[in-house]
């Protein structure tokens, strides 16, 4: 499927958006889910050093590898970051779901207020459930520990792994290696993936910026409308002859104001988070493709070294065999995850934009009905006045 096809609807699709979404189903979707995760109950913690939020993570499962069927732990944002880094370390060519940034975009909400905390809670909930639904990541040992270990156990487990600086060093070296020299034998499929992601990244970033601008303008419109309506009510007090009409206008503005507020909530809850999530996904996928290229680059360099050396051929041949296996595993993992990610992305985009379209229709229909009802009442009043003037 091309990017153009992702962003447009086929004429052969059902006309009803709801029926279109209902007919879209993943072929590899499991029939029976055996892992349920909920992130809720945010709680503030204030210490002499820092202020932070913890979230309750409740897990229910029927899997045999878990010692219990239900777990309840509390996790802070840093714990989620640790889990993401461990998944990237264990599965460098799988697409790890994005986490919300540490700080939210300027102009949206203040850090640690209720709106920010709820936005983050939803994002963390989605992050864990995307991992739980992934056919490989869901069985990762660190993921299991994250869901089940008490705070002190998790802290102890964290200390066993490589330090942050070590991980950062590995990442920097990997990216530097992939950037320094081009990959000679990159399969065409991965070149196409890279081109696709460059285009996708540009488009999704533009959509994200426009959506935030629309939301900002909608909020400004809403704030002005809130001030606009009461003026007609105040005016009606000094205009006895048209007082009812002025109050009617004020009532219409108030109803449209409430509809606008509802529409804004739909944008902030449905459109903005999805678009920004895929902005983060585009960055993650570019990183995954670079890591795949780095593995390919290691193989290419060993093959070049073997061609230039007459001694130690057996040793080089053994290393090349291992690297070929590593490249094949990386390619297969990325291919499978790429197809799965595209299915998810297409479903999310279709359902999100359909939801926005339906909300817009409801909004304009509600506002139109409000003003049409007001105009109809004014015409009735005019006819009544005209009839009374015609009578002898």
UniProtKB/TrEMBL annotation:
The record's Pfam families line, in alphabetical order, gives: PX
**PX domain location:** 33-154
Q: Which SMART domains match?
A: PX (SM00312)
Q: Which GO terms describe its cellular component?
A: early endosome; phagophore assembly site
Molecular function GO labels: phosphatidylinositol binding
Annotated PROSITE patterns? PX
What's the protein called, per UniProt?
Answer: SNX7 protein
From what organism does this protein derive?
Answer: Stercorarius parasiticus
This protein's source sits in the domain of life called: Eukaryota
Its family?
A: Belongs to the sorting nexin family.
Keywords recorded for this protein, A-Z:
Coiled coil, Protein transport, Transport
Task: List, alphabetically, the InterPro entries matched.
Answer: AH/BAR_dom_sf, BAR_SNX7, PX_dom, PX_dom_sf, PX_SNX7
> What's a single GO BP term from this record?
autophagy of mitochondrion
């Amino acid at each position: 499927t091309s990017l153009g096809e992702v962003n447009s609807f086929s004429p052969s699709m059902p006309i009803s958006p709801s029926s279109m979404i209902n007919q879209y189903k993943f072929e590899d979707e499991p029939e029976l889910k055996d892992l349920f995760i909920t992130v809720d109950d945010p709680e503030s913690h204030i210490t002499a050093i820092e202020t932070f939020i913890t979230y309750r993570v409740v897990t229910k499962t029927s899997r045999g590898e878990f010692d219990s069927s239900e777990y309840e732990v509390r996790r802070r944002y840093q714990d989620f970051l640790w889990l993401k880094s461990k998944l990237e370390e264990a599965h460098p060519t799988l697409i790890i779901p994005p986490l919300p940034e540490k700080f939210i975009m300027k102009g949206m909400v203040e850090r640690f207020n209720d709106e920010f905390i709820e936005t983050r809670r939803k994002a963390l909930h989605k992050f864990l459930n995307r991992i739980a639904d992934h056919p490989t990541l869901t069985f990762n040992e660190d993921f299991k520990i994250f869901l089940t270990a008490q705070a002190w156990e998790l802290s102890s487990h964290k200390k066993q792994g490589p330090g942050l600086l070590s991980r950062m060093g590995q990442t920097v070296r990997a990216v530097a290696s992939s950037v320094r020299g081009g990959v000679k034998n990159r399969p065409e499929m991965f070149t196409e993936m890279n081109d696709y992601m460059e285009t996708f990244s540009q488009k999704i970033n533009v959509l994200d910026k426009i959506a935030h601008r629309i939301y900002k303008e909608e909020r400004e419109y809403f704030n002005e409308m809130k001030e606009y309506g009461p003026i007609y009510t105040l005016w009606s007090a000094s205009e006895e002859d048209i007082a009812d009409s002025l109050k009617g206008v004020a009532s219409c503005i108030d109803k449209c104001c409430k509809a606008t507020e509802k529409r804004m909530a739909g944008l902030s809850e449905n459109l903005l988070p999805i678009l920004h999530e895929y902005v983060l996904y585009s960055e993650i996928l570019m990183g995954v493709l670079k890591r795949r290229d780095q593995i390919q680059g290691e193989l290419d360099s060993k093959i070049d070294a073997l061609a230039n050396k007459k001694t130690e051929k057996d040793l080089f041949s053994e290393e090349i065999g291992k690297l070929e296996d590593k490249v094949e595993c990386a390619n297969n993992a990325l291919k499978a995850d790429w197809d799965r990610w595209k299915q998810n992305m297409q479903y999310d985009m279709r359902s999100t934009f359909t939801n926005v379209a339906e909300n817009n229709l409801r909004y304009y229909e509600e506002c139109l009905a409000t003003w049409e009802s007001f105009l109809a009442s004014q015409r009735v009043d005019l006819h009544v006045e005209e009839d009374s003037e015609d009578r002898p």
